[in-house]
Amino acid sequence: MLRAAALVEKLGIPTASIVGSGFLKQAEVVAKGLGLPLAWGVYPGAPMVDSEEELRRKVDESLAPGLLRGLTEVNPVEIVRSAAEPEPMSVVFSGNLDEIEEHYYRQLWTDGLPIIPPTRRRVEAFLRYTERDPNDVIRVLPQESREATILSIAVNGVMAGCRPEYMPVLIAVVEAMADREFHIEHAGSTPGWEPLVIVSGPIIKALDFNYGQGVMRVGRQANTSIGRFVRLYLRNICGYRIPPGAGDKGSIGFTFNVALAEDEDTAREIGWPTYGMDQGFEPTDSVVTVRSVVAITPPTYSGGARAIDHVQQFADVMGATFRYWSHTGMKRGFWHPLVVVGPSIARVIAGEWSKNDVRRYLWENVTVTAERATHYARMTSTPTFSLERLVAEGVLPAEYAASSDPQRLIRVFIHEAMTGILIAGDPGRNQSRGYMGNHDQGVPVSKRVVLPRNWTNLLRNTHV
Amino acid sequence: MNKPEELDQRHEVLWPLSRRAVEDRPLAPRLPDLNGKTVCELWDVIFRGETIYPLVREYIRARFPRVKFVEYSEFGNFYGPHGDSITEELPAKLRAHGADAAIVGIGA
């Protein structure tokens, strides 16, 4: 929202923005990142839970006077020059392990877990796994407007406990998150979604990713440390920090996801394209996809020798989990579900159905009443939510306003093709799981993993 | 288990952040008198703006009776499904409406 205000200010037009008191700290971080001492009026508390009378009182006593001051008082806030900061690659602290942990924690540079000290020697070991210049800037990232450099990836990779040879994957991860399609500027929104890194191609085995039993558990170094790297990078380069920091407004949130790798052997055996191929890459390409996860289904057990036995179960469980939050996707006309299918189940389904058959079944059979979807949207943030208006604006297909019956059933999966399907997990059990993306925040973005020309030689000597 | 001398080993460690690539700028000049001025409303269609904006209008009009408002519906939802194109068109639309100031909401 403040980005829109900044755009208007740059046109020479004064603005005042409406900011909830709970968003003030984040607003300060965003304004600093935009380089503008933006003016705002403050709404105390949460407008979604106030009575009409309370809301009017808060507007009259706090919000409107603040907005008026913001528009009329001559330069309410003068330029605040940012404090001088260290140069990249500069030594900022010297101490023993305990002192380093304490210093980095107090500076809000860690997530509370111990880090590997980012010494010059360790960082240089990471940089050997890329041919890119350490000062290459992938993009200036919201919300602190810091440069996503190759060097910053290496430093945070060291801290997260990654091995140097993960560096090409880490670069691809940051390239994906930095893509404008991903919308990293919303990574601190209140739903508290988490990025999920999906790894495809030969790099899975080269770096020993887990794709079998316990695939989403902390425990395998590649999966775990790359997942942790993502959260550290969002903290240190984007500025998403929970209190006592600021910038991350996830109301409750959940912990970081470990990286998810596919059981591509099973995909090949059963004749399904791999997840990487679904993203348009060749089987020989190593690829990273980053996407948001805002909700996860319970473990979904299914039995039977027919495809329908399993996919019907997906529809039941994913419907129960995703139905509530699907209104957020309806507001944008899309969202991104992901089905992680257990290998034994994938074998049964693939005997009769293609991946597209699975997608079609979910699209056709997972529904919610128009009344419930509207109710959920109005409870969340949008009292003006209207399916009819979204259809009129071309956001949703016409069938969403096919009748005025509030009990009519509308699709949770808006488009047939929007579902991602990937095989992973315990081959000795019959479990799958569904993951829900957060509408247009964290849209799946895939990037090729670029290996250095001397990759094979480097892998032979992996110790720092 | 670490030996005591390992625990005491000192390391020089690097800065984990990166350069801020933004230049601090001043705000646009403010307007001490809103009479005769046009205030445009931009809204991301959340958090009860349909109730809040009319109350804000009322408050400002009580102090500057000749202020003119261009309501949020004229501009569209800059945070919605067409947000990118709406944002792109914003400068031209603001100019077309003769915007002197803007109120932007709601969130951070």
Descriptive tags:
heterodimer; A: 464 residues; alpha+beta; 3 domains; five-stranded mixed sheet; four-stranded mixed sheet; 18 helices; B: 108 residues; alpha/beta; three-stranded parallel sheet; 3 helices; 4 strands; 19% strand; elongated
3D structure, described in words:
The complex is a heterodimer of chains A (464) and B (108). Chain A is an alpha+beta fold and 464 residues long. Chain A is built from 18 helices and 16 strands. In chain A, strands 9, 10, 11, 14 and 15 form a five-stranded mixed beta sheet that branches. Chain A has a four-stranded mixed beta sheet with strand order 7-6-8-16, with helices on one face. A two-stranded parallel sheet of chain A has the order 1-2. In chain A, helix 6 (150-160) packs across helix 9 (221-238), helix 12 crosses helix 14 and helix 12 crosses helix 15. By secondary structure, chain B is an alpha/beta fold. Chain B has a domain at 43-108. Chain B contains three helices and four strands. A three-stranded parallel beta sheet of chain B has the order 3-2-4, covered by helices on one side. Chain B is elongated, with a radius of gyration of 24 Å. The model of chain B has no long low-confidence stretch (mean pLDDT 93). Chains A and B meet through helix 1, strand 1, helix 2, helix 3 and strand 3 of A and strand 1, helix 2, helix 3 and strand 4 of B.
Question: How many individual β-strands of chain B?
Answer: 4
The largest contact between protein chains, plus residue counts on each side, is:
A-B, 105 and 63 residues
* SS elements, strand count of chain A: 16
Radius of gyration of chain A: 24 Å
The helicity of chain B comes to 25-40%
Q: Uncertain segments of chain A of ≥5 residues (pLDDT<50)?
A: none
Distance between the ends of chain A:
45 Å
- Assembly of the depicted chains: heterodimer
Percent range for β-strand residues of chain B: 15-25%
The profile of the biggest β sheet of chain A is: 5 strands, mixed
Fraction in helix of chain A: 25-40%
